[in-house]
Amino acid sequence: MSVKTFTTADLAAHSSKNSLYLAVGGKVYDCTDFIDEHPGGEEVLIDEAGKDATESFEDVGHSDEAREIMYKMYVGEYHPDDSAKKPKSASSMTPKPIPAGESADSGRLVSWVKSWF
């Protein structure tokens, strides 16, 4: 089974009471069916809906039981850097040509070489 990866935009698409996802500690949880059961009230979840709620979650000091409940709601991994899913395009890896009559000073040459690694 492959694990779904969520970007910031993916997570933000689930920010309503009808589809409420939270990221905590790099993992994404579908809390939609838990809204009415949350001991802290639904407003707490709705305020954090579609976001990385790690800091808010840890600040409250949730119990081991709460963490076990979350385990059942796990839907994927959170990668806030959207570019992590996208490979570099060929055009971004192609060096810019040096116009005729100009020399490549060492700074530009070093930058160009570093862009390949």
UniProtKB/TrEMBL annotation:
Cytochrome b5 heme-binding domain ranges (all copies): 3-79
Membrane topology: Single-pass membrane protein
Any single Gene Ontology cellular-component annotation: endoplasmic reticulum membrane
Subcellular location: Endoplasmic reticulum membrane; Microsome membrane
Organism annotation: Linnemannia schmuckeri
Swiss-Prot/TrEMBL keywords: Electron transport, Endoplasmic reticulum, Heme, Iron, Membrane, Metal-binding, Microsome, Transmembrane, Transmembrane helix, Transport
Keyword hit for Cell inner membrane: no
GO molecular function terms listed in the Swiss-Prot or TrEMBL record: heme binding; metal ion binding
PROSITE patterns in alphabetical order: CYTOCHROME_B5_1, CYTOCHROME_B5_2
Chief localisation class: endoplasmic reticulum
InterPro entries: Cyt_B5-like_heme/steroid-bd, Cyt_B5-like_heme/steroid_sf, Cyt_B5_heme-BS, Cytochrome_b5
Record-stated family: Belongs to the cytochrome b5 family.
Region feature (Disordered): 80-106
Gene3D superfamilies linked: Cytochrome b5-like heme/steroid binding domain
Pfam families, A to Z: Cyt-b5
Protein name: Cytochrome b5 heme-binding domain-containing protein
